[in-house]
């Protein structure tokens, strides 16, 4: 771990009702979906009550922060920095089961976050907040429709919602700023969500309306409605397509106001005799006249062997178009609301993706090796090469952004605690040198512990 890097203890908190939440390691079961893990609360009978509590504390450190001085108002020549974050999330769920096995449920939770220790401006400086997270009601059909377990589900209120591996849609709330918790990212719920799911057999059809929970000081007014379809042939082969219609404050984000988005994806292991070989493909098209006309796509191939520690190797290429200054139209891809499904998706790189690049005007190569020494321990290393799609749009002539290496380890200590370690290194390319004048390597590290009850 780097000099000036201290330990960090942080949790990726869950909160999704209709889909899984992103987490660096397997998240605890969702309270509304894990009835077999319900805990007695002493609350009135007639309902099934479930209480959950998550808490974290963390510290983060890096050297040569973003190749710039983290506190330009107090220049010291030291480009290293360190800060702390903590979060708590209590949650309570009540479920009523009717005689026909259908269920009516409600969930309420709150999130408290604090960033402190003289945090740099990039992560919002020192700040804290506590506010409601989940606050929704839902109904699921059980076996009542004769179309399979919970073939129909409806949810209204403050709730989380994700699509696929969160390439475009995975996080309904903003962090940092006056809320704190920039990296912790404990909030996931949209400010308002209306979600309907119909799931007969292998088919899933969803309709949704979502209003993003932005920072009060930076409210873009981002809202969307849309439809999502998925076909799950089996646990190894899923195909999906999504349409989204966006609106936003035109003065803040004219490209997003009136934006049409089409998203197609495939997660597949197509060879029955070679189940260890899998592929992923995603494609997104954004259209809003000259205000925004762009696309993004990614391809990944992976192979997992039967050798000790179950080695899994993968390679992925992803392209998010940048704006061509020579045209009147805006071609810079809007990343929308990506989430964390696994290390490297879709925050690409613990240094680059977390702190100085976004999924726009970016091409990335990712190579990864993952090992499973024990059932409770996973570890690996990721290699990245980041390039600009349109260097002129960034005011440079080179497309070479950086080369990055991330090492990680996840250890499920017991049913309640998960420990993760990360150490990362990035070598700046010519594009960074041209834009910032920095040539020194950027190092980063953290350690985090998640508690869940």
CATH topology: Porin
Largest sheet: 18 strands, antiparallel, barrel
Query: What's the β-strand tally?
Result: 18
Instruction: Write the CATH architecture name.
Output: Beta Barrel
Distance between the termini: 30 Å
Describe the structure.
With 453 residues, the protein is mainly β. It has one domain: Porin, CATH 2.40.160. 3% of the residues lie in helices and 46% in strands. The protein contains two helices and 18 strands. It has an 18-stranded antiparallel β-barrel. The N terminus is likely disordered.
How would you summarize the topology of this molecule?
Layout: E1 48-63, E2 81-97, E3 103-116, E4 127-140, E5 152-158, E6 192-198, E7 203-211, E8 223-234, E9 237-247, E10 260-268, E11 277-287, E12 293-304, E13 312-320, H1 349-356, E14 362-374, E15 377-387, E16 400-412, E17 417-428, H2 430-436, E18 442-452
List keywords for this structure.
18-stranded antiparallel beta barrel; Porin; 453 residues; mainly beta; 2 helices; 18 strands; globular
Short description:
The protein has helices spanning 349-356, 430-436, and strands at residues 48-63, 81-97, 103-116, 127-140, 152-158, 192-198, 203-211, 223-234, 237-247, 260-268, 277-287, 293-304, 312-320, 362-374, 377-387, 400-412, 417-428, 442-452. The chain is mostly beta strands and 453 residues long.
């Amino acid at each position: 771990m780097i000099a000036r890097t201290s330990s960090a203890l942080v949790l990726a908190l869950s909160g999704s009702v209709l889909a899984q939440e992103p987490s660096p390691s397997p998240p605890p079961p969702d309270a509304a979906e894990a009835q077999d893990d319900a805990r007695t609360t002493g609350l009135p009978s007639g309902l099934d009550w479930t209480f959950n509590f998550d808490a974290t504390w963390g510290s983060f450190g890096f050297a040569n922060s973003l190749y710039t001085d983290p506190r330009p108002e107090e220049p010291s020549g030291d480009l290293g920095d360190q800060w702390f974050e903590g979060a708590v999330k209590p949650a309570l769920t009540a479920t009523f089961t009717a005689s026909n096995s259908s269920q009516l449920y409600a969930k309420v939770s709150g999130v408290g976050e604090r960033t402190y220790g003289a945090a740099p401006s990039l992560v919002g400086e020192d700040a804290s907040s506590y506010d409601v997270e989940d606050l929704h009601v839902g109904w699921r059909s059980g076996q009542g429709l004769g179309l399979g377990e919970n073939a129909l589900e409806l949810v209204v209120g403050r709730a989380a919602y994700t699509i696929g591996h969160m390439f475009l849609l995975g996080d309904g709330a903003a962090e940092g700023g006056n809320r704190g918790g920039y990296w912790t990212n404990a909030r996931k719920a949209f400010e308002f969500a209306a979600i309907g799911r119909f799931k007969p057999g292998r088919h899933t059809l969803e309709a949704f309306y979502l209003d993003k929970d932005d920072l009060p000081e930076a409210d873009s007014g981002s809202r969307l409605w849309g439809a999502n379809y998925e076909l799950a042939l089996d646990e190894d082969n899923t195909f999906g397509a999504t349409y989204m219609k966006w609106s936003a404050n035109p003065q803040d984000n004219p490209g997003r106001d009136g934006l049409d988005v089409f998203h197609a994806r495939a997660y597949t292991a197509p060879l029955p005799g070679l189940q260890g070989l899998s592929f992923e493909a995603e494609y997104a098209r954004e259209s809003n006249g000259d205000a925004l006309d762009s696309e993004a796509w990614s391809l990944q191939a992976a192979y997992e062997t039967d050798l000790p520690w179950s080695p899994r190797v993968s390679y992925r290429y992803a392209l998010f178009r940048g704006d061509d200054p020579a045209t009147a139209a805006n071609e810079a891809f809007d990343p929308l609301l990506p989430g964390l499904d696994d290390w490297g998706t879709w925050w690409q790189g613990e240094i680059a993706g977390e702190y100085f690049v976004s999924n726009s005007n970016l091409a990335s190569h990712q190579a990864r090796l993952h090992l499973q020494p024990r059932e409770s321990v996973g570890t690996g290393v990721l290699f990245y090469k980041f390039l600009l799609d349109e260097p002129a749009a960034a005011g440079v002539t080179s497309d070479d952004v950086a080369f990055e290496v991330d090492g990680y380890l996840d250890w499920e200590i017991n049913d309640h605690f998960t420990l993760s370690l990360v150490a990362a290194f990035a070598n700046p390319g010519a594009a960074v040198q041209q834009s910032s004048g920095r040539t020194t390597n950027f190092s980063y590290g953290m350690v985090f512990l998640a508690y869940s009850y």
